[in-house]
Amino acid sequence: MRIIKACILLLLGFQAIGQEADTSYSQIKILYSETFISDASGDEDIQYYKGDVKIFHDSSFMFCDTAVTRLNILDATDNIILIRQDTLQVFGDSLHYDGNRSYAELYGEVALLNGKQKLFSDALYYDIENERVSYRDTALMQSERAQLSSLTGFYDLEADKAHFFGEVVVIDSNLTLRCDTLLYDAAIKRAFFEGPSYITQGDNKIYCEGGYYETESGNAYFEKNTRFYGDSLDSKADFIEYDRLAGKMILTGNAEVQDNESFARAQRIEYLEKDSSIIMEGDGYYKDDDGEVYGDYIYFNNEKGELIITGNGSLYRDEISLSGDSIYYDVTKEAGSSYGNVIFEDTLEQRLLYSDFLLQDSLGNTTAYNKEGRPYIEEQGDADTLFLAADSLYLQQNEQDSVDRMRAYNAVKMYSKGFQGVADSLEYDTVDSLIWFFGNPILWADTTQFTADTIIVKTGDEGIEEVFLRSNAMIGNKLGERFYDQIKGKNIHAVIDSQDIEWMEVKGNAEVIYMLRDDGGAFIGANKTVCSYIEFFFDSGELKDIKFHANPTSNMVPVNQASQAELYLSGFIWEANKRPISLDDILNVKMEEIPVQESDESDTFEEDVNQVLEKLKYVPK
User: How far is CA 103 from each of CA 127, 130, 164, 329, rounded to the nearest angstrom?
Assistant: First the structure.
């Protein structure tokens, strides 16, 4: 009877297998097998299937060589295949399937294929109801361009996201990534990682504690204690972003980049691989063997040698520094331009040039000019500071990048405490320390005024050392409101020590008016001498001796009898209103000229004469 019953069950079993599956039924369905045995001898009914077994349950199709079912539980071995929704396929050596929970366990060289994603492990646990696959002892996922592995993790099939934990490794053709925790979003081909993470890309290495990597594009983003270093490059920032297609790396927040030849620092640094260019934004700083750069925005193209600085920019090269609102500089040609609040400084010579616009050519020439106002130079000496302004200034540098010639054009004015001057144009040879004044030049030193067609001044550490007046030379020394010592000649040469004239010579048609005083200091007469050559000797600025050469002639006129012509040499004008006495004066070109001869000071003159006559009463006869 038992054999008959077994045969009937076997026939019924094959009949069921041959019928169409009821997909709404929650029980595991065996759709086909080559052999079938049912064992009801125990407490549970057990069914045995063998040979090309086909199984269905809850939208899942399973295939194997051998299967055993009991109480809606399936155990299968050999050539396991599980298929869901046409896109998911799982392969393995053995399968344990719980139909009550829609839960599958696969063992032995398990492979999961979901679209273009492949997951390999020795054991996978598949929660079918929640579409979640997990593993507990090492798995490897392969995408189109990368492979990811970890000790444990799970794969959300519905969201197409994989979570990896413990000794996570990502490898593709661009880099290798190692971290503790990683989420891979297969839909957007992006891997998000957390915890201490190490990225290797050729000779370069990256450390961070968070970020993401796009497996298809090769783009990446790194954050938290980020550090990028290699054989020739070392950088760090709060955040680093890498655009592989553009060949661009962006560092944000306390960014620093250093290689064998340069160092860059800014709040944001953008580095372009194709032309080795670098962009620094926010408190930028760049340094290489040639100099240093500061600015709110700095762009440097290493391939072209192009440098652009904006926002309080500064450039330091050798003994030269340059600052301005905007700076463009060609490092290769050593030429460029600067705009807005420009300051050009020669630190060796302690010279500063201020202007609105500055142009530098490849020959070492610099031109400064202003749209409004005037450019000016500030030169600091040991004892005094000289200021010089003109409509335009021109500097010429030598091979040592130091200024060796300076020119100023139109309405030139200069000012220092001990020395002032005006001229139409000026040329300064820093090698010889000679300043040439052209076009109606006038110089002042204390109470002395110098005029000539051309004036040459030799400067030293203590200020003016020598003055050469060429053609129509004239010197006046102011003695009071009305009286002046005056010297006139074809050429005059004066030697100056500590701002005082020490020695002076007058050559060619020399004329001198020297004011005589009594013992009380009152003016008593004007002495005029004419001679072809005269020497003057001084002591602490006071005239001590005069030597007249080649038959001098002299004439003295008492002050109370002297006319205007007898008090002043022909052509002498005390140019008080042209004399700059401050920095504001040299920046202002509108100064009025008032000749002494044309001034209306008759009342003052009479008072002076009366004072002289009163004092003459006590002069010994």
Answer: 5, 9, 21, 70
**Residues 517/611, Cβ–Cβ less than 8 Å:** no
E strand or H helix at 261, and its extent? Answer: none
Q: Which two tokens stand for residue 237?
A: 């920032």
**10 Å Cβ neighbour count for 260?**
8
Token digits for 94? Answer: 């053995």
pLDDT digits (tens, 9 = 90+) for 497-544: 877 788 999 999 899 998 898 888 889 999 999 998 999 898 887 778
Whose CA is closest to 290, among 332, 256, 325? 332
pLDDT at 242: 87
Strand partners, 169: 149, 178
Domains identified in the chain and CATH numbers: 1-136 (2.60.450.10), 138-251 (2.60.450.10), 392-621 (2.60.450.10)
CB atoms within 10 A of CB 43: 5
Name the 3-class secondary structure at 599. Answer: coil
pLDDT by residue (tens digit) across 536-587? 898 887 778 888 887 889 889 998 888 888 899 999 999 988 999 998 988 8
Identify whether the C-beta of residue 447 lies closer than 8 Å to the C-beta of residue 433.
no
Question: What is the model's pTM?
Answer: 0.71
Distance CA 397, CA 485 (A): 42
Residue pair 247/271 in contact by the 8 Å Cβ criterion: no
Q: How far is CA 82 from CA 57, 61, 113, 136, 560, in A?
A: 11, 6, 10, 20, 132
State how far the Cα of 154 lies from the Cα of 124, in Å rounded to an integer. 9
